[in-house]
Design brief:
With 166 residues, this protein is mainly beta. It has two domains: 43 residues, no CATH class; 87 residues, OB fold (Dihydrolipoamide Acetyltransferase, E2P), CATH 2.40.50. 8% of the residues lie in helices and 34% in strands. Keywords: Biotin, Fatty acid biosynthesis, Fatty acid metabolism, Lipid biosynthesis, Lipid metabolism. It comes from Geodermatophilus maliterrae. InterPro entries: AcCoA_biotinCC, Biotin_lipoyl, Single_hybrid_motif.
Length: 166
Amino acid sequence: MELSPDDVRDIVRVLDSSGLDELHLELADLTLTVRREGAAGWTSEQQVLRRPVVEGGTEPTADTEPERPRAAVAEGLVAVHPPLLGTFYRAPKPGAPAFVDVGDVVDVDTVVGIVETMKMMTPVHAGVRGTVLEFRTDDGEFADKDAVLLVVDPASESAGLGEGAQ
């Protein structure tokens, strides 16, 4: 089940008119927690989870999602896609340094950017360990749900992570 922007608006309207102080919603690809912060109104915390797609990997099985067309990346590389459609930003705010740059080593939980949809900022996690090879979506550019934001090389993940740790 996917939530449309209209679905999210409806949920917020229902919450505003209810006496609830908190809502926690979990779907297959989305976890959303919204809390009422006294007179200040609502705050939200969300994490959109998407499995990384390794191009040229194994054949899909009956229990995986049907394949949707995606922009091509070289075999063995991972394309990082936005969790939902919206405007992609590489930094937390204008003028701030980018979350990551080409050549940076990322981990599964590393935030590599944010997507703004309806004034809600959703962090984009790398979803894989490796090195950022290139950005395919520019800062401030609109990204469809299946757009490739950046490409990560998981084979190079040992180059910067875990060295010297015993």
